[in-house]
């Protein structure tokens, strides 16, 4: 077990050299080179920054989807000559009365796995909607699995749009992940003032163009407020154009009117709609509405045929830039609510780094002194293995570009203790073998062999715990699990490859001498 082939030695020391290189490039500031730019990232608790927990409100989507289903049901009833009454939405359910002779026909349609109104989910073996029937009165509402599908879809779309918005702002290494069925966690290291991000994430960015009503008593209109004032305007409910037809939005400065604007470009379908609407309504006012708030309502002076338009308002440069960003990233499928917010100052982060570094240094030093005192020359081997272990751990974290948190530092400190634990078990086994064995080489060999099962059992059980913590834990717990798990692997490598090779060299050199442990 003490024999090492040249190939094995080459592999061992190649791994050490490569990971040592990645470990030390953390001290090199080079962002242009792909390899040299790799760094261990600092988490929110070490670097400082903002923490936001967002909740997706799926109720508007449920109501919107039910409204579409209600219209589809009405068309189905008319097409199949089914008599019904009072078809309407009540408390997130579709309610209506149906003639007794049509009930069987309706149920057969509703439970058909290929119908478009009540979708069948093969993975759940269930329908999108449940229905109840009492005195010819039908109540349709989303099933448990129907709600799960809606929430998952809304969360996935929201996650992508949140990521787009934050990436366009240019924040440094943001963390954007889903939490549960309806929440999104956003961590923004290095960001002290989250107000701009909160404004960007707090807007659904649902853009519509609608004509201003000529009469305030128009049945098909509603009153909407301006974004920057309490003044109201009667606006048609009919949408001329929506933000879905938008392909580009850029902030611009209009030198003629001396104001900031947002220039937008429409896709082909949107350009046709806009051209037709502006051509037929020259002289009328067109309201530009964002999240049910009027940005502006200019008069249509001429038909706009190019598919390019300008959104004007009382914009500052920052607000015009943010509006363009919102429009480019797309509208959120559902409103987002900030339910938790924390800000960690950079000074507190620096204090955490210093405290963690001091703790690691003290623990490292005390362990090294103890090993030297306890095992003398073998203690030197254990200390060298400990140093290599730490370098390998940081090297792997660098290659993975992992995020280091305060619990992660705790995981590294725990790894220091566990690393010498393996060598302690091995050295104690060697001491026992030297009592009965005359050959020092054989004593060292048997010591490593007999300690192997105990070392592996202790480290594998801890590794299993680290894996469970990683998959079931939250952010800080995951940081601890990552460093602990990688630390276990580097501990086994440094003990059974690096330290064992040094021990073999020591045993070979002193095979004819009396060694005292």
Beta fraction of the residues? 15-25%
Largest sheet: 4 strands, antiparallel
Total helices: the number is 13
CATH class of the largest domain: Mainly Alpha
- Low-confidence parts lasting 5 or more residues at pLDDT below 50? none
- Helical proportion? 40-55%
Q: What this model shows, in words?
A:
It is a single chain. This protein is of the alpha+beta class and 517 residues long. It is built from 13 helices and 21 strands. The radius of gyration is 34 Å and the shape is elongated. The strands form seven sheets. Strands 9-10-2-20 form a four-stranded antiparallel β-sheet. Strands 3-4-8-7 form a four-stranded antiparallel β-sheet. A four-stranded antiparallel β-sheet has the order 14-11-17-18. Helices cover 51% and strands 21% of the residues.
List keywords for this structure.
517 residues, alpha+beta, Multidrug efflux transporter AcrB transmembrane fold, Gyrase A, domain 2, 3 domains, 4-stranded antiparallel sheet, 13 helices, 51% helix
Question: What topology does this entry show?
Answer:
Blueprint lengths: L5 H19 L16 E2 L1 H4 L1 E8 L2 H21 L4 E6 L4 E5 L4 H8 L9 E2 L4 E2 L1 E6 L2 E6 L1 H26 L5 E5 L3 E7 L5 H8 L4 E5 L9 E5 L6 E5 L4 E2 L3 E9 L4 E8 L1 H13 L5 E5 L2 E4 L11 E8 L1 H13 L6 E9 L1 H30 L1 H23 L3 E2 L1 H31 L3 H33 L2 H35 L8
Parallel strand pairs: 1-21
Antiparallel strand pairs: 2-10, 2-20, 3-4, 4-8, 5-6, 7-8, 9-10, 11-14, 11-17, 12-13, 15-16, 16-19, 17-18
Helix pairs in contact: 1-10, 9-10, 9-11, 10-11, 10-13, 11-12, 11-13, 12-13
């Amino acid at each position: 077990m003490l024999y090492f082939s040249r190939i094995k030695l080459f592999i061992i020391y190649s791994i050490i050299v490569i990971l040592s290189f990645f470990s030390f490039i953390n001290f090199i500031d080079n962002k242009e080179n792909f390899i040299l730019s790799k760094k261990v990232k600092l988490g929110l608790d070490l670097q400082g920054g903002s923490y936001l927990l967002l909740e997706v409100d799926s109720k508007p989507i449920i109501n919107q989807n039910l409204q579409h289903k209600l219209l589809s049901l009405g068309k189905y009833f008319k097409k199949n000559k089914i008599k019904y009454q009072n078809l309407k939405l009540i408390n997130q359910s579709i309610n209506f009365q149906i003639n007794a002779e049509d009930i069987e026909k309706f149920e057969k349609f509703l439970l058909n796995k290929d119908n478009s109104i009540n979708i069948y989910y093969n993975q759940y073996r269930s329908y999108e909607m449940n229905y109840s029937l009492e005195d010819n009165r039908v109540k349709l509402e989303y099933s448990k699995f129907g709600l799960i599908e809606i929430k998952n879809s809304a969360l996935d779309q929201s996650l992508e749009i949140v990521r787009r918005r934050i990436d366009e702002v240019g924040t440094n290494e943001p963390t954007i992940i889903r939490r549960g069925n309806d929440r999104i966690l956003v961590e923004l290291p290095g960001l002290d003032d989250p107000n701009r991000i909160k404004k960007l994430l707090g807007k659904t960015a649902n853009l519509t163009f609608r004509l201003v009503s000529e009469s305030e008593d128009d049945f098909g209109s509603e009153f909407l407020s301006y974004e920057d004032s309490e003044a109201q305007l009667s606006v048609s409910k009919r949408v001329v154009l929506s933000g879905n037809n938008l392909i580009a939005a850029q902030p611009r400065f209009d030198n003629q009117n001396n104001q900031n604007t947002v220039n937008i470009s429409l896709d082909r379908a949107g350009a046709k709609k806009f051209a037709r609407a502006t051509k037929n309504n020259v002289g009328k006012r067109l309201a530009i509405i964002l999240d049910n708030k009027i940005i502006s309502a200019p008069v249509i002076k001429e038909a706009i045929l190019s598919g390019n338009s300008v959104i004007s308002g009382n914009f500052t440069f920052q607000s015009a830039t943010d509006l363009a960003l919102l429009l480019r990233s797309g509208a959120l499928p559902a409103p987002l609510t900030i339910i938790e917010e924390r800000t960690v100052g950079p000074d507190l982060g620096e204090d955490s780094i210093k405290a963690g570094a001091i703790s690691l240094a003290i623990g490292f030093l005390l362990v090294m002194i103890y090993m030297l005192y306890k095992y003398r020359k073998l203690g030197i081997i254990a200390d060298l293995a400990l140093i290599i272990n730490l370098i390998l751990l940081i090297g792997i974290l660098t290659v993975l570009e992992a995020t280091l948190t305060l619990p992660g530092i705790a995981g590294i400190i725990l790894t220091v203790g566990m690393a010498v634990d393996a060598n302690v078990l091995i050295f104690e086994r060697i001491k026992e073998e030297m009592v009965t064995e005359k050959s020092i080489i054989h004593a060292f060999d048997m010591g490593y062999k007999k300690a192997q099962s105990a070392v592996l059992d202790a480290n594998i059980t801890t590794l299993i715990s680290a894996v469970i913590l990683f998959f079931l834990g939250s952010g800080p717990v995951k940081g601890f699990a990552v460093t602990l798990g990688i630390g276990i692997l580097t501990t086994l490598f440094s003990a059974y490859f690096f330290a064992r090779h040094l021990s073999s060299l020591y045993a070979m050199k002193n095979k004819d001498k009396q060694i005292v442990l």
